[in-house]
Amino acid sequence: MPTPQPFLPHGGSYKNLIAYQKAECVYDVTFYFAHHYLEKSDRTIDQMVQAARSGKQNIAEGAAAGNTSKETEIKLTNVAKASLQELLVDYEDFLRVRGLKQWQSDDARLAQTKRACAAHNDSEYYRKAMPERSAETIANIAITLIHQTDWLLNKLIEKLEIQFVENGGIKEQMTKARKEYRGY
Questions:
Q1: Which of 4, 66, 70, 170 is the most exposed place for a label (fewest CB within 10 A)?
Q2: pLDDT tens, per residue, the chain with 184 residues
Q3: Residue 114: is it exposed, middle or buried by C-beta count within 10 angstroms (0-12/13-18/19+)?
């Protein structure tokens, strides 16, 4: 009888996903921002930090679950997107209610920020830069990072959907492995 072939995918580490790296940057920027620019009694601190954490953690959890359930991986990746959208609204609210500017597409600062954020996926870069930046600048950096992460998560979900259609779920893979093992 042939040796059974493994059927569980051996994916790479979630830490290698650029979407995860960007989400970690969002978390670190948000942690700094919330603790430096919001009133200590403001419940928004916990809400923003938790939304940023949820974005990051759900990418990690989804990637880990993906070995046995593409459905769960897709769902958790979408939860990460939703958490980051919630956080995006918090940053937009912060700027609006304080009369600060959310940089628009014709603003040179936004173009520069997009380039910098596209080039840096390491959270240390942002942690070092935060003390030198204003609340308005940090909020716009966070917004840019959230948009970039959201785009990456959209691409990741598209890839996961294709993998599911091509390979099926765990039950299909188990049945295929059993049939191959038995020579059917």
A1: 4
A2: 556 555 555 556 899 999 999 999 999 999 999 999 999 999 999 999 999 999 999 999 999 888 778 889 999 999 999 999 999 999 999 999 999 999 999 999 999 999 999 999 999 999 999 999 999 999 999 999 999 999 999 999 999 988 888 776 667 666 666 677 676 6
A3: middle
d(CA 118, CA 145) in angstroms, rounded, equals 8
Amino acid at 151: W
Q: Copy the structure tokens of residue 5.
A: 């072939």
Q: Give the integer Cα–Cα distance in Å for 86 and 93.
A: 11
Residue the block writes with tokens 């920020």: 113
On whether the pTM is more than 0.70, the answer is yes
